[in-house]
Amino acid sequence: MKFFIDTANLAQIKEANELGILDGVTTNPSLMAKEGIKGEENIVNHYKTICELVDGDISAEVLSTDFAGIVEEGKKLAAIHPNIVVKVPMIKDGVKAIKWFTDNGIRTNCTLVFSAGQAILAAKAGAAYVSPFIGRIDDSGWEGTELIAQISNIFSIQGFKTEILAASIRNPNHIIKCAELGADVCTCPLDSILGLLKHPLTDIGLAKFLEDAKKM
Ligand code: E4P
Asked: Can 87 be counted among the known catalytic residues?
């Protein structure tokens, strides 16, 4: 399973990258706004900087919601760097645009996916990634990881090449469940990635080893 970090924060991207386990980055308009990135030039420069920091797929989201606008914006984003993956929302014009991008050699990440039917449409249109938002499903009182299992089963039966990118990760256990259920990628906040490191028995064991090492 690949690890992406889900942020536009450069310090966090650097920290995750330095761990040596990072395969890519996802951003969205909310994450970009949180970092105060405004205006076309600054947005493009921010994506360029992320692409220079991380050698892997970098998702950059379109803001348009009509076919012509999505295609125009996506072409500009894709021109920033070969590793840019154009993030397109799961709407009717989004599906049409994903098919256009597929036919024109531009890779896409279909975002805001909350059902298996939406994932099938994205895969049929040739999306490189489909992003089910498991945390937001949990927030609504359903079980987000069940969607990962369902999509994984369908893609395997149907032989779809689209990768399942588990998004809206809230905690380390989400990452473990997604790995277990067949997600190809997890995009996670830094604290969820670092949370995987933690176990009290590791801390107790290390303290004892270091104490005993003084007697060596
Ligand atoms: C990633 O591609 C998504 O934009 C992101 O994981 C959404 O996460 P959130 O539900 O925590 O906002």
From this structure: yes
